[in-house]
Amino acid sequence: MTESTENKNDIDPTAAATEDNATPRRKTPARRAPTRNRRSATRKAEGIGTGTRGKVLVTGAAGALAQHVIALLKEHYEVVGVEFRGLQTDYPDTVDYVVDFNTRPFEDVFREHGFMGIIHLGRIRFTQSTRNRRYSANVVGTARLLRLARKYGVEQVIALSTYHVYGADARNPSLIDEEYPMRAANLMPEIVDAVELENLFNIHLYKHPELNIAILRPCNIAGPGINNEISRMLSQSVAPCLFGFSPLMQFIHVEDMAAAVVRSFERNRPGVYNVAPDDYVAYQDALQRSGCRRLFLPSVPPSLARRSVRALGRYAPPDYLIDFFKYAVIIDGGLFARTFDFKPQHSLTELFAHYRGGK
Question: Going from the N-terminus, what domains does the chain have, and what CATH number goes with each?
Answer without folding.
Answer: 13-357 (3.40.50.720)
